[in-house]
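S., here's the first fold you wanted:
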Amino acid sequence: MPLSGKKLHVSQPEPVADSPAGRACLRAEDVEVPRARDVRLYLPVLDGSDQMGVMALTLDAVGDDDRRLLGRLAGLVADLLVTKNAYTDQFFQARRREPMSVSAEIQWSLLPPLAMSVPQVKAAGFLEPAYRVAGDSFDYALNDNILHVAVIDAMGRDLDTAAMATIAIGAYRHARRVAKPPHSGVTGPRATPMAPASSSAPMPGRPRW
């Protein structure tokens, strides 16, 4: 979906499948489309490994210096999106194709980044149906060499179900954060994560479940 704004040329939405913008998004790589008089470029806008969107622009010609500069520009755009996303609804509204239920609004606001990638491990998740999800949720955290993962499935499709999942996620995060870190000198009780399904995997080289 194009993002509107002052002095921006607002184009039409492009499908993720079978489009240059979609390839840039899915593969997280620059896509160049030569045309008769210019070159159309699509650059992934990434916050670490989290896909924020795609930046599209047109140049008369593209050289290596242009590619390096545009890569930095895409990184700056990602930083701006992350910063401003905390106090505006415009980015949410640009991405949505239909109204979202109150339950889904609550669940999406609770989620961690949908994708995380570090040398030790990669993690990704999503919720379906995106606009009507109620009791489904997930959470994860990478602390030192341990990946903590929880999957929540509260029964039902109403607002009470979303509230139940919210409490479960909050309890799980609390238990995870007050637990004694491994190999530390801190003493105290270790809390038990309160979630229907959870896992903590040490990662000396590859994660184990």
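And the second, which I think is the more interesting of the pair:
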Amino acid sequence: MRKIAILAAFAALVALPAQAQNARPNALVELPPKNGAHLTVTTPGWPDGGDIPFENTAYRGNVFPGLAWTAGPRGTQTYAVIMQDTDAIRNGEPILHWTLYNVPASVTKLDPGMAPGAKPEGSAYGPNVRGQEQPYAGPRTPPGPKHRYHLQVFALDTKLAADPAMNFDALITAMRGHVLASGEVVGLGRAP
């Protein structure tokens, strides 16, 4: 009986959301804007909180869904984009699917199907689950409950030092204190 209770407690712990397991929060929580300013973020791929089409996943196509956001407040020099799966934890952190930083302030849209070499001039890919300097890595949700994928956009008052070997900690540290506004669109991933 005691063994069953221990297994039930373990199963309940595993089922808790990432934040409840003392994992690192997603970037939007970790990097609040200076004055609480908000960006409205959308994707033509799905409505906020909607299912991510399989063509935008690693299961079929791995096609970038496109992204648009409202312009940042006065003082915005660049944008950073971070995509995380907050329902899958690796090394105590939400799985990082994509980062793009130093997007010029004049850019507020990334086209659907954006090829890896078509990133905005001056921007750089950062770390993700596939390694450094990699383009979009679409979800590959395991069987079971749907996962939440957060496509987050940050308006920054600075340009970050480009570093092809930058890890996620270095990216967050460089952004800290420079976020003027932020927002996200969330998609739900599932296994086929």
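Why I say that: The first strand starts at residue 37 and ends at 38. The first helix runs from residue 2 to 15.

Talk tomorrow,
H.
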